[in-house]
Amino acid sequence: MGPIRILIVDDHQVVRQGIRSLLSEYAEIQVAGESDGGPATLAQCAELRPDVVLLDIKLADANGLVLGRSLMRQQPELKIIILTSYDNEEYLIDAIRSGMSGYLLKNSSAEILVDTIRAVQNGERRICKDLMTTALNTMEQLGRKRLLDASGLDEEDYQLLRLLAGGANNEELANKLYMSERTVKRKLQELLAKLHASSRAQAVAEGYKRGIL
């Protein structure tokens, strides 16, 4: 196999030069080209046919995530690693859901960058270690929301169901949810109706069955 061909997309020339210099020390990696993220990037990528694109999010005249999706539509086998200064949760989840292969911060070490390039070229997905917990928590929340929506439940229902599974009585539910016991009783009846359950135990069992708990 030949070297891993890289296209660097960043609107700061000094950043592109720095990455090129860093990667030049690794024989298995070849920088095929650079781009400032402008309109010509799609044409340049089509011409160079890189294996991996290192792509910043904030570009002078483009949104890197939007550009990345366009590049992947043009070249489906392309691997994209977001390399940015932004540890923004929304950007991270957008990149993951868009099918991009990696998300690294620019303060990552050379070893991490090169290891990530190798990994994504082999079909793996990599996220900066500092952002991993955020990514997992957010994906868990998104997954739970889909399950709740499918069952006609909301986050308040989930918290109530979770406390029921822990054996909480009405007084404990009221204290932990900052509700009156009267409101708790009403919420419980609504929850049972949504889950088509006749008892608390059955509601909890239904929660586990549907993957909510």
Protein topology:
Blueprint: E1 4-9, H1 13-23, E2 29-35, H2 41-48, E3 52-55, E4 58-59, E5 62-63, H3 64-74, E6 79-84, H4 89-97, E7 102-105, H5 110-121, E8 126-127, H6 129-151, H7 155-165, H8 170-177, H9 181-194, H10 200-209
Parallel strand pairs: 1-2, 1-3, 3-6, 6-7, 7-8
Antiparallel strand pairs: 4-5
Helix pairs in contact: 7-10, 8-9
What does this protein look like?
There is one protein chain. The model has no long low-confidence stretch (mean pLDDT 91). This protein has 2 domains: 4-135, Rossmann fold, CATH 3.40.50.2300; 152-209, Orthogonal Bundle (Arc Repressor Mutant, subunit A). Helix 8 (170-177) packs across helix 9 (181-194). The radius of gyration is 24 Å and the shape is elongated. The longest helix is centred in the middle third of the chain and has 23 residues, at 129-151. The chain has a 6-stranded parallel sheet with strand order 2-1-3-6-7-8, sandwiched between helices. A two-stranded antiparallel ribbon has the order 4-5. The chain has 213 residues and is an alpha/beta fold. Helix 1 (13-23) links the parallel strand 1 and strand 2. The chain contains 10 helices and 8 strands.
Mean of pLDDT: 91
Please give the radius of gyration in angstroms: 24 Å
Residue share in β-strands: 15-25%
Provide the CATH topology of the largest domain. Answer: Rossmann fold
Secondary structure class reads alpha/beta
Kindly give the count of domains: 2
Please summarize the sheet with the most strands: 6 strands, parallel
Shape: elongated
CATH class of the largest domain reads Alpha Beta
Our count of helices gives 10
